[in-house]
Amino acid sequence: MHTSLDGFISGLNGEMNWIHVDEEMFDFVATMTDQSDTALYGRVTYEMMQSYWPTAGDQPNASKHDKEHSAWYNNVSKVVLSKTLSEKGLLNTTVISDQLVENINKIKKQDGKNILIFGSPTASHSLLSQGLIDEFWLFVNPVLLGQGIPLYKGMTETIKLKLIETKTFSSGVIALHYETKRN
Q1: Is the backbone of residue 99 left (phi > 0), alpha (psi -120 to 50) or beta?
Q2: What domains does the chain contain, in order, with CATH numbers?
């Protein structure tokens, strides 16, 4: 998840034009998608991804990243947290509308690779509040927004993290990899 240095994931109106991405970062993220076979989204992020990625790699001007990520997106299982989206007509997509803990733990116990969540602040807040996030990859962008949608909100207890690794990109973005410390 991208964040500003002051802890916002977007501006007040969802603006994300301050997020820095480039080929170096795309190549790095590809190493993470290579280790995953399930993508988890909130409804808004899923609809945004679904409107672009299924055909992004087929476009005449598609970049290396567009081709690779489009292929990955089309092949992975998708899980969407939503109380309003219907699973009917969706390919390779499961919609979870209730029993979040039970449904996510069932997916986590299945054979396979990692589950990645992209963006999806509301879904992330729900997963975090239920103790369902095992690791975090935060991409801290060198910008202060001053206000916006916070990375974390509504937390009622402290969650301790262990730093696993860091990566500094030439753009000044720093990737921080943490795992949650379970008691």
Answers
A1: left
A2: 28-84+95-133+161-180 (3.40.430.10)
* Cβ atoms within 10 Å, residue 22: 12
pTM here? 0.87
Q: How far is CA 127 from CA 13, 133, 134, in A?
A: 23, 6, 10
Give me 45's structure tokens. Answer: 């992020």
Give, for all 183 residues of the chain, the pLDDT tens digit. 999 999 999 999 889 999 999 999 999 999 999 999 999 999 989 999 999 999 999 999 999 999 999 999 999 999 999 999 988 889 899 999 999 999 999 999 999 999 999 878 788 888 888 889 899 999 999 999 999 988 887 777 888 999 999 999 999 999 999 998 865
Contact present, 105 and 29 (Cβ < 8 Å): no
